[in-house]
Amino acid sequence: MRHLKSLLLAGVVCLSAAQVEGQSKKRFKGKPIEFGVALGASNYLGDLTPSIAVNESHVAGGLLCRFNYSDFITLRGNASFGQISGDDKNYNSDAFRQRRNLNFRSNVVEFSGVIEWNIAGFGETTRERPGSPFLYAGLGVFKFNPMTKFEYMPTKTINGAPIHDPQLKQFDGKWIELQVYGTEGQETTKYNERRRYPLTQVCVPLGFGYKKQVDEFWAVGLDMGARITFTDYLDDVSLTYVEDQIVGGNNGLVAAALADRGPELGYERFYNGDPRGTSKANDMYLFLNLTVTRKIVGGKTVCFQF
After folding, report:
1. Is residue 66 part of a domain?
2. What is the CATH number of the domain that holds 208?
3. Which residue, 9, 99, 115, 185, could crosslink 191 as a Cys pair with Cβ 3.0–4.6 Å?
4. Cβ within 8 Å of residue 143, ≥6 positions away
5. Has residue 46 been placed in a domain?
6. In this predicted model, what pLDDT tens digit does every residue of 2-23 receive, in sequence order?
7. What is the pLDDT of residues 219-235, one digit of tens each?
């Protein structure tokens, strides 16, 4: 009998503990961590694109991790990859751009952290505020490297003189990194104040979007954001033209050929000091992404009632 009483007492204790645990689960409101992927498009605004050129959009993607600090504040980390490009040939109606004839492309790798403000509150479940528009801002670090494709033209002449030296044949059809050639006279004796721009820089992500919880684990979203940068050289274009003798004398014949691409279309070379770009505003790049995330830690727990 004594053993039976002990077993009954133990059973009551276990049932009580289970009930308390169940109630605590029903009351538990966690702060989940989500992990997911992003897929979308990248583009840029700068000296070679006075407005967004849709035909210069490229596939972009990345990984993200969210920590829902509260219904209204979410912390997000991003690892993003995309490509940006621009070409004066997109604006043939502009006489200056047609003559300038510059183009570039660059891969962009970014690591950033942002704060999302969930305007309507994000309840993290399909039952309570399952979707919300949001604004975000943060800080990031990105790496870029503008390049251009060179086409060797041995028969092209201006005023009877060939535009390309035979030594340039080795670069025909190749994508050439522009920063190392100092196409605007960077770090030459005469233009020593023009420093080579660093290829790793800081950016400020700003954007907006909408996200929705589709079940207790998965959420989808759409966001668009611009990256404010502190450089005007995403496209290797900013200041003025520099004499061929200075650019070429410092960095070789290929530097002079890439600095002024007008002769490839039969135009006279620009003069020293002519505007090549404008430094009134820095360049920026943009991401438009569809995101899919899944809770991996935490989250609201719902118990069934019987």
Report:
1. yes
2. 2.40.160.20
3. 185
4. 108, 109, 110, 199, 200
5. yes
6. 443 443 344 433 334 444 344 4
7. 999 999 999 999 999 99
